[in-house]
Write a structure and sequence with these properties.
This protein has 128 residues and is α/β, with parallel strands linked by helices. The protein has 5 helices and 4 strands. It has a single domain, classed as Rossmann fold. The protein has a 4-stranded parallel sheet with strand order 2-1-3-4, with helices on both faces. Strand 3, helix 4 and strand 4 form a beta-alpha-beta unit. Helix 3 packs parallel to helix 4. The longest helix is centred in the C-terminal third of the chain and has 17 residues. It is globular, with a radius of gyration of 15 Å. The chain starts with a helix and ends with a helix.
């Protein structure tokens, strides 16, 4: 990714959120791991409820900072009700509010093959 493409691209790690601030620890670790990579795109967190920023707030900040390609990555195990009902409404509003941005939606992280394999490997290692 060249510097121009990098500065125009961003990732939003989207989670449910919780009242306990420690709940977001793994998401912060994932964000920091992405950010540590060479030529990493800007990577931010967003939450459906209880925590901030919200998805609209995160996308607005990224768009204001020059992002033109934003990938929303749901940090959920599966496509449940929030991803089937709530997220499409949020994305439609964000796309309307920021027509200059291409906002894409990734598969729920827990449904991605590499994540399934990593979780299976971890489960199998629990007897070691």
């Amino acid at each position: 990714m060249n510097a121009s493409t990098q500065s125009e691209s961003a990732i939003v790690l989207f989670g449910h959120g919780a009242r306990d601030p420690e709940w977001a620890g793994p998401m912060r670790r994932i964000r920091d791991t992405v950010r540590a990579r060479p030529d990493a795109p800007r990577t931010e967190l967003a939450f459906l409820e209880f925590m901030s920023p919200t998805l609209p707030e995160a996308i607005a900040e990224l768009a204001a900072g020059g992002a033109r390609r934003i990938a929303v990555v749901p940090m959920f195990l599966a496509q449940g009700g929030h991803l089937k009902r709530d997220l499409p409404v949020l994305l439609e509003a964000a796309r309307s509010a920021h027509p200059e941005c291409e906002i894409t939606l990734a598969t729920a992280a827990g449904e991605a093959d590499p994540v399934v394999v990593a979780m299976a490997d971890y489960a199998a290692s629990c007897l070691d």
